[in-house]
Amino acid sequence: MKKAKVVHKNTGLRQFKVSFLLNSEELKAMNHYLNKYKIDNRSHYLRETLLSQVLQKLDEDYPTLFEPWEMKG
Q: Is the pTM of this model over 0.70?
């Protein structure tokens, strides 16, 4: 009996590394936050937080047919 072929789709495999530096105060603040809210997976938290901000900003900047009016006063 033949084995069925397994087709692997791109399931969002992370293959690109992004890194950044923090100063000691930023690191202390981040570690305090992670400990306070019992966040175990720092990578997941940072990725989720960063991408949510990026997607929110892209959504806000989405082009529209008309520019929203501003009150002048």
A: no
